[in-house]
Amino acid sequence: MNINTTIEHTLLKPQATQEDIEVLCREAMENSFAGVCVSPVYVQKCVEILKDSDVRCVSVVGFSSGAFLTETKVEEARRIVELGANEVDMVMAIWALKNRDNNKVIEDIKMVRKAILKQNPQSALKVIIETALLSDDEKKIACELCLKAGADFVKTSTGAFEGASVEDVNLIKSCVGDQAQIKASGGIRNFEFAQKLIKAGAVRLGTSAGIEISAGKDSTTSY
Hints:
It is a single chain. The protein has a single domain (3-214), classed as TIM Barrel (Alpha-Beta Barrel), CATH 3.20.20.70. 43% of the residues lie in helices and 17% in strands. It is built from 9 helices and 8 strands. It has helices spanning 18-30, 43-50, 70-82, 94-98, 102-119, 136-149, 166-176, 191-200, 210-214, and strands at 7-11, 35-38, 56-61, 87-91, 124-128, 153-155, 181-185, 204-207. An 8-stranded parallel barrel has the order 1-2-3-4-5-6-7-8, surrounded by 6 helices. Strand 7, helix 8 (191-200) and strand 8 (204-207) form a beta-alpha-beta unit. Helix 3 runs parallel beside helix 5 (102-119). The radius of gyration is 16 Å and the shape is globular. The relative contact order is 0.14.
């Protein structure tokens, strides 16, 4: 597998400028990355830049805590897909999981999924379970709930806490099998680690170090 085709070139820093986003998109196209992952405010700009390329526009919902009203997540997801985002990375209702309200977790995901598919039947939904905040048992439950709700991907992290680990990707893979794909994100800064995550089962890597990784170098970036 060409590692470039797994990379989602990511810039979610609140201080990101329009010029930063333009560079991000240009780098993604030049390196044939799978996509760019940006905040909702920059979706329209990315879609304009990427329109003649195969690079996908990914944006986030309920970022980064997940502790949003479901109707707020639904409207945010609907709007970013309306603006042209191909994929939505939503943060799971971690608060509900911690309260053992599994039905709420499922409802939250299902409602967002319904909204984006209504807007674009070809769109994809990734659910960020924030592995750093969960026990192994909770991670397994989270994966099961993602499958029940119809998520296309289970994603490890937002990058706000500890990032991806090979152990967590292995655990997620053991839970979802081939029923959902896996996106690893957070702390992916070098080629060797990226390769290990892919070997464990990740098919997408969310990282701001895509250029360095594709060149086989290390990076000091935090996401």
